[in-house]
């Protein structure tokens, strides 16, 4: 499937993959402003800026904008991450031009209506307060905050002090600085004409003037220990440790090791922690990547009575991973990953997200075929060499529950 790329004079990057067998098309906008760009006294500003941008743009008010999306059958989503504000949309191929023009208004001409400020603020506050009930998510927020260097561990949820003090001028200023073409990536996947797409994006976004805003420096990840007191019958356990970033040549070795650890019901964590011992109701691990730093994040949810044993066994499995993996473990993982790759070719929205991620980290796109070759190239020998050089360690550990847990002597 052909992959196209174009950089406009103002720095905007368009990358696209043609999937002509589909009747749909999807796009992802990665706008270069995320939670890491929030001023400390205005935590949550980027999320509120995103929320307010959706409340009317161009000549359409909030209701009219939503109705227009529905008329065109456009499925949408938006997310604020640590480094970006992400807008996603999927539609029938015939509606791509209309959708791009709508998002042109959203990203270039938001109204930021003053009458909507307090309702937008309440949405942000409710999302922040919801963390109190989402105990695992709350624990992971604290894990990121403790593990990553400032400001890269900041939560997009912000805090009450920041959310209650944000003004409309703050939002307009954040938009003016962050919603700029240089650094913005538009990724498109599905059925489209490249010549028409390139021309339309240029007409809608190509005239936007270049902005200037420095990315916050990113230091090394940290080792941090924290317990959050919470009266509950449950205990949440979250662990992070350093790995390699997505751009590293060894990324797929790290990914393969974590896949053996956590991918599927035959994985080590599921088998050893949940199935054999019945210690927890959820357990898992995944690779995470900033541009310069990679990490592995692990989690487990268990009862307060079995929390200490769960932490001990989880750490034991992480340390045991350094001893290496077996061929049959990797064979199961490869079969699962091949199925995932095949299915990803049937989703234009998933593929658009992958294109945007690749360009951000690599400034190029990994084709499905290239990824397949990387997966085929994994072997116990290559992964075990990687694990010898990068054994799990220097753990950040955050727990939430009625009582603090003791960190095993092997990692304390």
At a glance:
By secondary structure, the chain is α+β, with helices and mostly antiparallel strands. It is built from 15 helices and eleven strands. The protein has a six-stranded mixed beta sheet, sandwiched between helices. Strands 7-11-8-10-9 form a five-stranded mixed beta sheet, sandwiched between helices.
Give your account of this protein's structure.
- Helix 3 packs parallel to helix 8.
- Helices cover 43% and strands 19% of the residues.
- It has two domains: 203 residues, Cytochrome Bc1 Complex, Chain A, domain 1, CATH 3.30.830.10; 177 residues, Cytochrome Bc1 Complex, Chain A, domain 1.
- It starts with a strand and ends in an 11-residue tail after the last strand.
- The strands form two sheets. A six-stranded mixed β-sheet has the order 1-2-6-3-5-4, with helices on both faces.
- By secondary structure, it is of the alpha+beta class.
What fraction, in percent, of the residue positions are helical? 40-55%
Uncertain runs are none
Largest sheet: 6 strands, mixed
Strand order of the largest sheet: 1-2-6-3-5-4
Strand segment tally: 11
- What is the class of the largest domain in the CATH system? Alpha Beta
Distance between the termini: 50 Å
SSE run: EEEHHEEHHHHHEHEEHHEEHHHHHE
Classify the beta-strand content into a percent band.
15-25%
Structural class computed from helices and strand pairing: alpha+beta
CATH architecture of the largest domain: 2-Layer Sandwich
Q: Outline, from the CA principal axes?
A: globular
Provide the CATH superfamily of the largest domain: Metalloenzyme, LuxS/M16 peptidase-like
Within the CATH hierarchy, at the fold level, what is the topology of the largest domain? Cytochrome Bc1 Complex, Chain A, domain 1
Overall average residue pLDDT: 93
Q: How many H/I helices?
A: 15
